[in-house]
């Protein structure tokens, strides 16, 4: 099970994401990292474990308040050799122009049906995020009707559980797994501890996006990576 730490960016700072209520997000200050500076947050994650992949949500871009591409590029330069999955809506550049260390995550919340028709015909190099809010898909339903057009990796993101430490959305994950048995699934939202990761692995989930469990210490990496 691959663990991918999450950094949520708003106005140039890392913020504490909670249940998708973005208007109430505040600068991140946790037992792991008291400084909301994004560089300090990544450094704090790396003190826990030499992670090779990070997930960055550009909340300014997702809410139509401008992109933080220069900040994300600076993070890439500061932490070379790492891969950044970046959720910032539809990119302004072709996927091929983003470089190998930045992989675009395109969430359904950022899509219109015509965007899906265009993306579904694209080759690899991007990650689909199925964004669930209040029990429904946030985005065009046609995406769920055409799992054969999904890229290799698919994030199952339940926004109502983000930052909640209430456990993953098991039924949703099982349902998406049944729709696309050959895709590499990534669970996001609510992950608490090692037992959640073990259950996700048994379900056939390939990776997990994690923030609150790392910041609070409920996910003990020393136990997970012992002997690896």
Number of helices: 9
Binned strand content = 15-25%
On the 0 to 100 scale, the average pLDDT is 91
> Largest beta sheet, briefly?
8 strands, parallel, barrel
| Rg calculated over all Cα atoms | 16 Å
Broad structural category: alpha/beta
What proportion of the residues is helical, as a percent range?
Answer: 25-40%
Strand and helix map with partners:
Blueprint: E1 2-10, E2 13-16, E3 26-27, H1 38-48, E4 53-58, H2 59-62, H3 69-78, E5 83-87, E6 102-107, H4 113-120, E7 127-133, E8 136-137, H5 142-145, E9 153-158, H6 170-179, E10 184-188, H7 194-203, E11 207-210, H8 212-216, H9 221-224
Parallel strand pairs: 1-4, 1-11, 4-5, 5-6, 6-7, 7-9, 9-10, 10-11
Antiparallel strand pairs: 1-2, 2-3, 7-8
Structural account:
This protein is an alpha/beta fold. The protein has nine helices and eleven strands. It has an eight-stranded parallel beta barrel. Strand 10 (184-188), helix 7 and strand 11 (207-210) form a beta-alpha-beta unit. The longest helix is centred in the N-terminal third of the chain and has 11 residues, at 38-48. It is globular and about 45 Å long.
